[in-house]
Automatic annotation (TrEMBL):
SUPFAM superfamilies: FAD/NAD(P)-binding domain (SSF51905)
InterPro entries in UniProt: FAD-bd, FAD/NAD-bd_sf, Flavin-dep_Halogenase_NPB
GO molecular function terms listed in the Swiss-Prot or TrEMBL record: FAD binding
Pfam family, one: FAD_binding_3
Protein name: FAD-binding domain-containing protein
Residue ranges of every copy of the FAD-binding domain listed in the record: 9-192
Gene3D superfamilies: FAD/NAD(P)-binding domain
Coiled coil: none
Amino acid sequence: MSPKSDSYDCVVLGGGPAGCTAAGLVAKEGFSTLLVERERMPRHHVGESLMPETYWTFEKLGVLDKLTASRCAKKVGVQFVNSTGHESKPFFFRNHYDHASSETWHVERPEFDQMLFDNATELGAECHDQTRVLEVLFDGDDAATARATGVRLRTADGERTITSRVVIDATGQSSLIANRFALKEMNGHLRKAAIWRHYRGAKRDESGGGVKTLIMHTQDEKCWFWYIPQSNDIVSVGVVGDNDYLLKGRGAPNDVLNQEIANCPVLGGYLEGSEALDDLAVAKEFSYTTKQAAGAGWVLVGDAWGFIDPVYSSGVYFAMKSADMASECVVDALQSGDLSAERLGAWAPTFAEGTKWVRKLVNSFYSGNFRVGKFVQEYPHHAGPLTDLLVGKMFSPDMPALFADLDPWLEKMASAPRTGDEPIMALG
């Protein structure tokens, strides 16, 4: 099926969490909105563990009841395992903030993305999958001055040119607009890769009223694993390490994954007796930001705006929160008739300031010196702000003070001997 019109107030590119959120919230305010996704829905995608603060965008979208009624596993906390196999005390989010928003879900992305896609339709957006964006159309060739005027699409019926007042780029790491204008700024220190698959019948710990995300280091600390229990007795398991270490000269990805599992005995215990599913996948996880979040008639959201390492499960939250904030600016711009970069991108400085703290926490994780249990013992007043970051409260005014102490402390710990029994991360 092709778009019903040749002109819309807003065209959103990409049917992932960012695109569906932006399309739904703009359409909800009465503006004609077209959402296009190149793949057939539901689509396969990694990124199953959510941050609790995603709750508030779910509430705006009206999908909390759907998630609560779904088969998705309820996520109640997080636990960390260091290179010696020492397991931290489980950290339960509700102990920090006793509210419904303190618990979230481990989702199956095909079903989750389909739910958001369908919800965008319910909110008034016109949504089409299997529709490829051939080109974003601009008046001008410079990111600072070029005005987006629409898109050229390939549908089942052939090519179509669609005009629009605003184009929202939610194309993920394809980053159509950012790549066109060379806006990406790569983080050379976080050139990671991930290999993952799902397992049936692996260990599930549901103490605390639900499942937890586990983060496990390998014995040589060159990699870490995520372990995300899902519904139907399925667990998502993925290894993350330097791109060159994981993907160059070590054989097939399946062999590399098994080698790293053998290098993580605690994980091997969790997987004992389980069945590996035939869905192995590989991705390069290169972290980056963009120099410009918006221009005349266009906005970047989600991974099209920037990508960060998945260690804290921030991907879906960043996607939806950026789209949530950007959609408010898009609605304001459409209502006022001012489609300038300043108006459409007014959300970006606040969002960038918040994500900066999560990026710093990621860098702390990869420093190898992040013994948070010890840090909290020495600075107990920072336990709350650290917890805020783990649940997604990245706009807290306590962040500057936290890192004013954490950064020099990490430098000190770099030269301090390890006892071998300290958890790399623990907040309880």
